[in-house]
Automatic annotation (TrEMBL):
GO terms for cellular component: mitochondrial matrix. The keyword DNA-binding applies. The keyword Mitochondrion applies. Transcription termination factor. Binds to a 28 bp region within the tRNA(Leu(uur)) gene at a position immediately adjacent to and downstream of the 16S rRNA gene; this region comprises a tridecamer sequence critical for directing accurate termination. Binds DNA along the major grove and promotes DNA bending and partial unwinding. Promotes base flipping. Transcription termination activity appears to be polarized with highest specificity for transcripts initiated on the light strand. Gene3D superfamilies: Transcription termination factor 3, mitochondrial. Its main location: mitochondrion. It comes from the Eukaryota. This is Mitochondrial transcription termination factor 1. InterPro entries: MTERF, MTERF_sf.
DNA sequence: CCAACCGGGGTCTGCCATAGTA
DNA sequence: TACTATGGCAGACCCCGGTTGG
């Protein structure tokens, strides 16, 4: 055991000679420290089990790298008591892939356990990521964003199995790219966990009488890259809540889940319930019936996650401009536009004397270009 | 020709709890 | 028994334009 560690550290140390072009920000002095620590370890390893103080050489190495040691210690204190770590190797590895010093320091500060990974492991993992990404810089930007996603798992085999599993669901390389970009954690899930989610979705499709449950699974994952990093419990609870609150038919529920509703599946259930309650109450107070409220949410699932305050403001603002609540219920998509955008559009329309009761509200549901073209015409007509 | 319908695109972690492991 | 690996949680939109049917 000790011999293996010795070999590993020697290897890491000797590795340095293969990378002579060091950046200025890594003074050469610190490359020796692992080796020195190794010597200390060799002398002391008999008593090593008794007490594991934090390793002074490690602290010094990290400080040279610019790591925020306080932050790192707070996050993963165990790493600081390890005898053998690979901070040089990890820094060198990241640098060789194009990361700058600041990024490296930030990555280790935020996920100290990274320094326990071997060079070989990192290179192997990198190749797996590169089977999905075209360039190193894409990967670096994700590591920068979320160090944990890259470093949390030591199981490259599992990562590989996840890739094949996702392909086996009928997802394309473009889909995998998207998932690894937006929810990289999904690939660090155990294969079993991902299978559970796929099974849950498939069973759901079957229970809804979907003719092609496999396609149903594929569609939902494609629509919502985050779903694989949610718990099956959450997804199940949310589907149950849809059923209870909206009383949809099977086909309505399928349509909801395969469409915008897929994104809503991963909301925290409490948040979703709270939003549903608040917005329903507002709609009731405006004279809507239960059926209308249910239809509103089916037609416009984003209402589940829109912040109540914002959505409520938008509704008020539209009503104040002479738009009828029924018009709004028929065209909930206009709520997707920001309040400021809607306000500006309404102001412009008022200027040309546009009458919502006469001409409807769909003019608000158009892209900037189309809206401006329409407005230009209205201006001319005047 | 134009309004209405509809799907798509970008994008998203950092922390805590705990079972498992050496 | 300390530490690692992994599961799970809270947080919370906006916009564009292709296609279609009248």
């Amino acid at each position: 055991m000790a011999a293996r560690m010795v070999a590993q550290v020697m290897n890491i140390y000797l590795c340095r000679t293969r990378f002579p072009d060091l950046p200025n920000c890594f003074p050469s002095a610190w490359f020796k420290s692992s080796y020195l620590r190794l010597c200390a370890f060799s002398c002391n390893h008999a008593t090593e089990a008794i007490q594991k103080p934090e390793n002074a050489a490690l602290l010094s190495n990290l400080s040279v790298l610019g790591v925020d040691i306080k932050m790192a210690q707070k996050r993963q204190p165990g790493v600081f008591r390890k005898v053998v770590t690979n901070e040089e190797g990890v820094a060198e590895f990241l640098r060789s892939k194009g990361a700058n010093c600041k990024t490296i320091a930030s990555v280790i500060s935020r996920y100290p356990r990274a320094i326990t990974r071997s060079y070989h492991h990192l290179e192997e993992r990198w190749q797996l990521w590169r089977s999905i990404f075209k360039t190193d810089s894409e990967i670096i930007s994700i590591i920068e964003r979320s160090p944990e996603s890259y470093f949390r798992s030591s199981d490259n085999g599992n990562f590989e199995k996840n890739i094949s599993f996702l392909y086996s669901l009928g997802l394309t390389s473009k889909d995998l790219h998207r998932i690894l970009t937006t929810a990289p954690r999904a690939f660090s899930n155990s294969l079993e966990l991902n299978k559970q989610m796929a099974k849950l979705l498939r069973d759901l499709g079957v229970s809804l009488g979907n003719e092609n449950p496999d396609d149903f699974v594929k569609r939902i994952i494609t629509k919502n890259a985050y779903i694989l990093i949610r718990s099956t419990k959450r997804v199940k609870t949310n589907v149950d809540f849809f059923r209870e609150a909206l009383e949809p038919s099977n086909s309505e529920l399928i349509k909801l889940l395969q469409g915008q509703g897929a994104e809503v599946l991963d909301l925290s259930t409490d948040y979703m319930k709270r939003n549903f309650k608040n917005i329903s109450e507002q709609l009731y107070s405006l004279g809507c019936s239960t059926e209308e409220v249910q239809k509103f949410f089916l037609d416009y699932p984003p209402a589940f996650y829109a912040s109540f305050e914002k959505l409520s403001n938008k509704i008020d603002c539209l009503l104040e401009s002479g738009i009828n609540i029924k018009q709004l219920l028929n065209k909930p998509r206009i709520l997707e536009f920001s309040a400021i955008n809607l306000k500006n559009r309404i102001k412009e329309l008022e200027r040309v004397g546009y009458d919502f009761t006469k001409h409807g509200v769909t003019i608000l549901d158009s892209s900037r270009r189309r809206f401006e073209a329409k407005l230009g015409k209205l201006n001319k007509e005047e």
